[in-house]
């Protein structure tokens, strides 16, 4: 039986969303989740399952019963013949990765943060860059969820296939996901090549970079002409041939510089924003190249200890350079002091109904500010450019879109709404965010 408490407060990682639910519980079984849904129905209230709070929106907020994920963790099945793995919904990605490594298996691709729960990451469309699949959701081949009527429903290609097709990015609107099954593959090595480039070098050859490498991640430092490029490619080599970063180099680069020193610089820029352009110039000039190889998840993910706020959009790849150029023009002409780089990634088209990559190859553009800084002017300044080029906002990151203008961006939007009506007719899982992006 899960733990329950009242009069608690929950906040997300960035401090941009707060919930004050009437009850908070930690379900330890599917039966506990069913009981929470039935309580909400009886009380004519709502319930939401949160993850680790890495979404920047208020997607997880409820004033009803807030379900914490910590009691539903762990890998419950590994099928080497089918190349699938099933894990409980609250399992952090880092735990899944380490378990898969022990079994000689790996996800095809993932984002760069491994702290999120599997259900939270898939529900909001968390993605990586390039690869066989750009996001987590396209790798999902099975879902178990508790619907708004309290039914435990399983969705696979053979059982409730419509729920699988429409619900892999479900926003928590269709039910409380309790377990997920992913397609996996044998563990493989990635070689990472990281090097600074000028804007003209990187953006001028962007199509070639994306076409000639398995994974590409670019970071442009505003107020400069320089980017850090990251290219990760699969190695046809035994795992014993890995050449990971040494312990000292890894600590210096990823902890001391990427987190410690960068955090100190961000804190300083918060106090004196006028120093940001000069700080970015200096930071971008001291970037150095490095090459290493390791198992995939150790290359694709990295620690993120400096807190921030973020907006991210997927735009059609064919207009990506044009959008980037327009965004830079606006940033260069503004009075904003932007200490965080703009991140540029890519995605192949997928078939997940509410995925930002549905039906088209995409370029992802992500914009950040420190968690203590007001993002409003910056994000409002670039969002119209992204919208004008048929951009789709990341569901878990800050944006201003509503159901009226999101519906035309997703060909299967009405199908998703119809499934929501079927699985949650009483809107047990509703909150202000879902009313904004899906309607009531």
UniProtKB/TrEMBL annotation:
Protein name per the record: FAD-linked oxidoreductase
EC number(s) stated in the UniProt entry for this protein: 1.1.2.-
Residue span, FAD-binding PCMH-type domain: 17-187
Pfam families linked to this entry: ALO (PF04030), FAD_binding_4 (PF01565)
A GO MF term: L-gulono-1,4-lactone dehydrogenase activity
Organism ancestry: Bacteria, Bacillati, Actinomycetota, Actinomycetes, Propionibacteriales
Keyword Transmembrane: no
Annotated InterPro entries: ALO_C (IPR007173), FAD-bd_PCMH (IPR016166), FAD-bd_PCMH-like_sf (IPR036318), FAD-bd_PCMH_sub1 (IPR016167), FAD-bd_PCMH_sub2 (IPR016169), FAD_lactone_oxidase-like (IPR010031), Oxid_FAD_bind_N (IPR006094), Vanillyl_alc_oxidase_C-sub2 (IPR016171)
Keyword flag Kinase: no
Keywords: Oxidoreductase
Enzyme class: oxidoreductase
Assigned GO CC terms: membrane
């Amino acid at each position: 039986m899960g733990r329950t408490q009242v009069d608690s407060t929950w906040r997300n990682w960035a401090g941009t969303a707060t919930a004050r639910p009437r009850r908070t519980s930690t379900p330890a079984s599917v039966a506990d989740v069913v009981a929470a849904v039935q309580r909400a129905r009886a009380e004519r209230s709502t319930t939401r399952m949160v993850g680790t709070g890495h979404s920047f929106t208020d997607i997880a907020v409820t004033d009803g019963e807030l379900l914490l994920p910590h009691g539903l963790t762990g890998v419950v099945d590994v099928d080497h013949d089918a190349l699938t793995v099933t894990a409980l919904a609250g399992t952090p990605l880092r735990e899944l990765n380490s378990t898969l490594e022990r079994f000689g298996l790996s996800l095809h691709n993932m984002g760069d943060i491994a702290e999120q729960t599997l259900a939270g990451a898939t529900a909001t469309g968390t993605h990586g860059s390039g690869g066989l699949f750009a996001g987590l959701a396209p790798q999902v081949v099975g879902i178990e969820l508790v619907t708004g009527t309290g039914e435990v429903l399983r969705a696979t290609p053979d059982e409730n296939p419509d729920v699988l097709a429409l619900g892999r990015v479900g926003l928590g609107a269709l039910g409380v996901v309790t377990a997920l099954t992913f397609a996996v593959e044998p563990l493989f090595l990635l070689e990472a090549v990281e090097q600074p480039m000028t804007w003209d070098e990187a953006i001028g050859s962007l199509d070639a970079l994306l076409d000639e490498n398995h994974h590409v991640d670019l970071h442009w430092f505003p107020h400069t002409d320089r980017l850090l490029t990251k290219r990760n490619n699969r190695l046809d080599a035994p795992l014993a041939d890995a050449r990971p970063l040494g312990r000292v180099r890894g600590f210096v680069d990823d902890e001391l510089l990427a987190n410690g020193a960068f955090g100190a610089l961000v804190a300083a820029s918060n106090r004196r924003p006028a120093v940001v352009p000069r700080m970015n110039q200096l930071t971008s000039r001291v970037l150095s190249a490095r090459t290493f190889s390791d198992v995939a998840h150790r290359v694709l993910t990295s620690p993120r200890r400096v807190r921030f706020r973020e907006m991210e959009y997927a735009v059609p790849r064919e207009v990506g350079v044009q959008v980037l150029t327009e965004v830079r023009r606006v940033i260069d002409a503004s009075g904003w002091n932007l200490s965080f780089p703009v991140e540029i990634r890519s995605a192949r088209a997928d078939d997940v109904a509410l995925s930002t990559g549905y039906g088209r190859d995409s370029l992802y553009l992500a914009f950040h500010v420190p968690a203590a800084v007001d993002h409003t002017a910056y994000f409002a300044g670039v969002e119209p450019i992204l919208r004008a080029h048929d951009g789709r906002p990341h569901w878990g990151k800050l944006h201003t879109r509503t159901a009226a203008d999101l519906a035309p961006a997703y060909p299967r939007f009405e199908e998703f709404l119809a499934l929501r009506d079927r699985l949650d007719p009483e809107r047990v899982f509703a909150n202000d965010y879902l009313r904004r992006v899906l309607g009531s």
